[in-house]
Each structure stands twice: as C-alpha cells, then as structure tokens.
Amino acid sequence: MPIDAGDALVRALHDHNPWWEHGTEAFSLPARQKSDFYHLARPDESDSQFEDQPLLGLVGRRGVGKTTLLHQFIHHRIETGDDPERFLYLPFDADPLYQLQSDEQLRRAVRYYESRVLGRIEADHPHFILIDDVHQIEHPNKPTIDGWGVPVAELLEDVPGRHVVLTASAGIQVERELESVAMPAEDYDIQPILPEKFRDYLFTLYPDLEEEDTRVSPTSLRTGENSLPAALQSGEIESLIAELRQKYEKVADVERRIQSQVVDYLAMGGTISYDLDGAAESAADLTVDDYAQLREDVRDALYQEVPGFESIQTIADLERLCALAARNRGAEPFRYQDLVELFDVDRRTIADSYLPALAELYLLTGVTEYDNSRPRSVRLYLRDTGLVTALADGDASTVRNDFDREADLARVAAFDHTMRFAYGINAIQGNDETPTVQYWRGREGEVDFVFEVDGTPVPIGLAYQSREREESLEAVREFKEAYDVPLGFILAGDTVRGRQPIEDLGEGIIQLPYWLYLLLC
After folding, report:
1. Do residues 86 and 195 touch, judged by C-beta distance below 8 A?
2. What mean pLDDT is predicted for residues 282-294?
3. Cα first-last separation, the chain
4. Total-model pTM
C-alpha cells in the first residue's frame, strides 16, 4: 500500500474552515473576545492590525489563546459583512500528517483554496491566510524540505490584497525563518499574546464596567499633559494625582465589587479564568482538573516547543525552575551559585539559556537588582498567578483562605502588570523594546519594582499588608533621594490605612490602591 500523506491537509480543508458553508453559525467561541482582539481586529475601524503589513506573527505559549484570537477575528469580519471565503485557516498542529512534506502541502492547500473557494467571489478585497502553529513546520534538519518561510514568501509575492497571519510559540521562531528568506523587516510584525490582565477579567465578569461612564482607560497615564512621562519630565506631580483621582471616581461606586474579585483573579490568573465556559466569579468554581490542565499545557509547551528555538539538553530543568519559582512566589532572590549547585549546571546555562527560553514563552521572567552590573542573585517571577497556584497548591483553596498566600500572589501579579504598564508607556513613547522591571535594595528596605521611562527610573513599593507599608515607604524615599527622581508609588492593599484612596504622601510619593493599579495597567 503506497504512503499517501501529501494531500492530507487539502482533504481536511473544509473541516477546518466550516464558515465557508455555514458562516457565523460555524463558530463556538467564548462570550467575550480576548483583550488582544480589540487592538488587533479594531472592531470600530474599517481595517485591522492584520492588514497593516503583509505578514503578522502572533506568538505566545500553548494555551494562551492564539487560536481563539484567529477565530474571533474571522467571526467578527464575517459578521460585519466580509465573505467567508476570504479566510483560509491552516492548523499545522491538528494532525501530524500535515507536517510531512509540509512545504508542498501548504502550496497545494493554497492552490486548492484559490481555485475552489476564493475564485467564487470578486478578488478586489483583502483575503487572509491564517497559519496556526507554524513552528511545527520549520524543519531545520530536513535539507530536502523547505521551512515555512519559503512557501509563505511565495504566497505573498505578486498577490495584492493578500495577508498572512502566523502563530508560533516564540518570536524568534518567526524572525529566524523570515530572515532566512530575506523578508524586509517592514513587511512583517510580531505581536506577543499574554494571559488576560485583571481589567480583562473584570470586564468579562462585569461588562457594564466597559461603558463610557465607568471604563477606566490607562491611555492618559501613558501620554499627554497629565501622564506619568509628563510628570517625570516636569517634576510636578499634581496633574498626575488629579488624573489618578479622576479615574478612581469613575469606579468609586463599585469599589467593593472590584476589591472582592482581586483574590479570585490572583488564584485563577489570566489563562485559566478565560478558558472556562463563561467568566468564573469565584475561584471556588474551579476544580483540581482545571489546574492540572494548566500544568499539562505548560509541560507540553516546554517539551514540544522549547527545542524548536533553544538548544537545551535538559528540558525538565525548565519545568523544575518554574516549580521553584512557584514555591518562592518572588519572595526572595535566588543566588546564582545556589541555582548552579541545585541544578548541577554552570551559571551561563541558567542566565543565558534557561531564563531566556522561559522568557521567550512569557512563562517566567528572571529579574536582577537595579543598577547592578554584576548581579549575584536573580528573582524569579512566573507571569501567570494561576500557574503559581497550579504548581504550588493544586487548587485555589489555600489562596482563598490564607492572607499571607494571597499577598504572595499579589506580588507576582503586580510584577506582571508592572511589566505591561512599563511596556505600554514606553511603546507610546516610540520605544517598542521589552521593558526591564527590576528590584532595588537600600539601607531602609527594598523597592519591589523599578522601571525606566526615557532613562528616568520609577520606583514602586508594594504594601499589600499593613505591616509592609512603613518599610516600603522608607525604601521608596531612599531610592528617590539616591537617584534624584521626581516621584514614586506605594501600592496599598485593602488593609493599609489611608486618608483617601489616592494620597499624596509628600516628597513626590503617591499612594494608590492595589486593585486600582492593576486596573490601570
């Protein structure tokens, strides 16, 4: 019997593209779009980020929602009047047979689509080829099979109105392949897809918070006369404080409702809470199986996807490093020497191989001390608090009943949201590089997070529990004096005293509620 795998993808095209026959009825999607949907699809505009360049890569670890985003985009465009035939979806992880001679399978699938499907409609509008899990068909060790870059470059050549959208685990997988075919940098863009933020979870749970009167937008804190960059430049913080107070007033009437959901978000994180069928108002609704699935998704990401972009011999060490970070919850930095002895590898393997691989998947970020050119320690932050719960506890009961554990997860979530806050501010200033969020140790205590805006550091102290406030405050004051910066922040938990929600503590230090900070990131 001859081996017949070369047309496997073509034979399954209609199964993977049911909207060609059934339109919007073919979809089964979450009730709310993922947060990235809004800036990618631009539902209130005539075009989308998918059309800003010939090729767009969406990157992120398995389970974060890249496939969901693709289907939400297709559904939205069909619902708003586009022909279903304008969208070809090719999932290369759906069947291992698609990965055999994948260069020819991809070409054959597109030829079939062009002649049998796209040919049904007028060709004067854009059409989209969406290739899911493209990292499965790189084939660097198969000299007779082209990696996906070659056929994709051919697909874009001399075809006006065609846009290719790819998904992969890490940006380097897309960059490496496109560089191999000499695709100009201006012809493609790469967009990371991360777990949902606290504000996304709230909007899913309480859609009314997205209405104009109650929607708290971070845009005016990123740019404009009342923004953080403006305050850093002028040294005057009054306008920034007024802006923060105005944002608080928008949701002051529902403050307790928002506060009550913080612990549930901390226990669930931004991946598992969105994966559920409908928003989970309480983490108690989750089962051990839900967290077990999250662990399995991460394990699959490590064992199946890391080898595609990092030469790491002991993949299990990455899983062990995640488990170690989950137990520590960012409480104390690890000495590099201790990690070297624990994992029985050299420091270069930890610092230049393990940590970058985990960072590429947005699973874990290692941070060092601010303004220290020869750091001896590193702090490990998982980027999703649900994964911390999954690896350290197995379910949400411990978090929901232990205030100290809740405070630990609050630290992890604050780091992740600060990374996003820093990226948003720097991006709007024209700096698209991944921000660095570090910590700083002084004589009076530790500043939890430090990031820079146009070279000026911003210190942030976390006081989730009342006993942490004075040390955090003194540490921020010491940092401000040491680096002569105009302002700093204290993030106060519900038990921390304050005369008003947004409080000017003097000396350029602003105290604001922890929940509001998450909402603004």
Report:
1. no
2. 88
3. 59
4. 0.91
